[in-house]
Amino acid sequence: MASRITPNPSTAPAEAITDRRQDILNAALACAAEGGVDAVTIDGVRARCGASVGSIYHHFGNRDGIVAALFFDIYHDQSRSVQAQLDAAQGVEAGVLALVTGYLDWVVAQPERARFLFQARGAVAASPRTPDLAEAARRRNQALVAWFEPHRRSGALRDLPCELMPSLVMGPVQSYCRAWLSGNAGQGGLPSPTMYRAELADAAWRSVKA
């Protein structure tokens, strides 16, 4: 008699938990895209994804927990994307250009997620997740500083404090993208950042090259 195969009881539930968590975050992003971060509410999220109130609280604790979790998921995804572009670049100039264009391209490809990052940062900074935000920002900046330092020592970049260089390189593109995301091109808003992709990248390089 063939033996009965007992399914692993942990596999399906784990997948279901992951899927449910993502469903809730997707619903939260949809709420934010429609009405801003303030539109992310327990009732609004539940109505969009069908999750029970108990499930939402189980995964995220409360409404602020949803906002913070979505923020960090997007933040880390953006960081990985930009870092991948930097890692693939050959040479210091190509690296600086990759930082700018990698960031710009990510924003243009995912405007709702990018807008949420800008909108939710203040709320996360004022929440119990403040230390996590500070640590995430520190790690991102530390990685950039570590990349800039050897090029500064070699003379390829200006002899400036390396902690200043990420702001010089990324400040203009972040500022333009933020302004673009806050407006509406159909109602007199700014043109897409792709229109100024080359100009922003060139300005970043000129700001730090030796």
Low-confidence stretches: 1-7
Sheet-strand content, in percent, reads: under 5%
> How large, in whole angstroms, is the Cα Rg?
21 Å
Shape: elongated
- How many E-type strands? 0
Q: What does the largest sheet look like? A: none
Helix content: over 70%
Q: How far is the first residue's CA from the last residue's CA? A: 78 Å
Based on secondary structure, the structural category is mainly alpha
What is the averaged pLDDT score? 90
Q: Give helix and strand order, one letter per element, not per position.
A: HHHHHHHHH
Compute the number of helices. 9
Domain HTH tetR-type: 18-78
DNA-binding region: 41-60
Organism: Acidovorax facilis
Keywords: DNA-binding
Task: Characterise the protein shown here.
With 210 residues, the protein is mostly helical. 74% of the residues lie in helices and 0% in strands. It has 9 helices and no strands. The chain has helices spanning 11-35, 42-49, 53-60, 63-88, 92-109, 111-125, 130-154, 165-182, 197-208. Helix 4 crosses helix 6 (111-125) and helix 5 (92-109) crosses helix 6. The longest helix is centred in the middle third of the chain and has 26 residues, at 63-88. It is elongated and about 60 Å long. InterPro entries: Homeodomain-like_sf (IPR009057), HTH-type_TetR-like_transc_reg (IPR050109), HTH_TetR (IPR001647), Tet_transcr_reg_TetR-rel_C_sf (IPR036271). Residues 18-78 form the HTH tetR-type domain. It holds the Pfam family TetR_N. Keywords: DNA-binding. Residues 41-60 bind DNA.
